Amino acid sequence: MKTNSFAMLIFIAIFGAGLFLTFGISGQAIGAIGIILIVASFFAAIFVSSSIKIANQWEKVVVLRLGKFRVLNGPGLFFIVPIIDTTAYWIDTRVISASFKAEKTLTKDTVPVDVDAVLFWKVLDAKKAALEIADYQSAINWASQTALRDVIGKTMLSDMLEGRDKLGKELQRIIDERTEPWGINVISVEVKDVLIPSGLENAMSMQAQAERERQARVILGDSERQVAEKFGEAAETYIDNPVALHLRAMNMLYEGLKQNATIVLVPSSVLDTMQLGNLANVNARTNGLEKSALTGAEPLNAKH
Predict the structure, then answer these.
(1) Domain range 96-196, CATH class
(2) Which of 107, 113, 125, 236 is 20 to 30 A from 2 (CA-CA)?
(3) Residue ranges per domain, the chain?
């Protein structure tokens, strides 16, 4: 029974008025009439205060008269007939959240998982929620758990891990179909966590690592192929233009000598290919490049 401060105030006012009237009529001595007035004011206060009910803004009250549905009252102030009318249910119409889970449930590919989820729902029809089912809150909890187990049994583990939003929407649809006859609307279902066995988790981690390594090798191989293609295009350019090849060779030597204490080993066959002359000429040109790099002046044998 909900406490009603306003009804208590009415009770005190009526009973106090009866006492004041009794003592005003009888004086100091209370006779039979005074006793009757006191008793009458007491029962009148109980009757009136019991008929006053106040429902909060988010509440709906199911009123039964002699066991039959009479009216759905609330929110605010309303009146009933004591003894004849009863307030059977005070139903909260706000959005309510409830957590539920399924433990050690097999997926479609026979993997045991533990799934935690949260259900958001509200009562749309308070009359159905009160009269169509005995305990709608417990019924929603059991309906959510059975729906979760059914969905897990029809879903592959990979789909479950990657598509939690899809899993939640499917659960919402199934639970809403089951609770609609009870006047309850399921707003959403959020899957919080999917727990898998530790051994399988390690295996999946190794599989993911191997997949990343495979992708890295594929990318590296593709990069080498692209580099080889570019070298092939450059070789075709140098075949038709020996001067460009000569300048490229000189530039490679110069870039190598720009670093301090750099030793460049060039095979004689490469010298012949780059048309740089014999080893003595290469040494001379190298010394000239070193001096020019140190002093900033042009080599003595440079042609203008």
Answers:
(1) alpha beta
(2) 125
(3) 5-91, 96-196, 205-240, 242-304
How many C-beta neighbours within 10 Å does residue 187 have? 13
CB 302 within 8 A of CB 290: no
**Helix-helix angle 136-153:164-179, to 10 degrees:** 140
Q: Any idea which residue has 């990657």 for tokens?
A: 162
Which SS3 state, helix, strand or coil, does residue 80 take? coil
Yes or no: say if 61 and 72 are a contact pair by the CB < 8 Å rule: yes
Is the pTM for the entire model greater than 0.70? no
d(CA 137, CA 100): 12
Euclidean distance between CA atoms 15 and 150, whole angstroms:
61
Residues in the chain: 304
What are 226-246's pLDDT values in tens digits?
A: 888 887 777 777 777 777 766
Query: What residues in the chain have per-residue pLDDT under 50?
Result: 279, 282, 293, 297-304
Tokens describing residue 160? 């479950």
Separation CA 96–CA 119 (nearest Å):
8
Check residue 66 and report its DSSP letter.
T
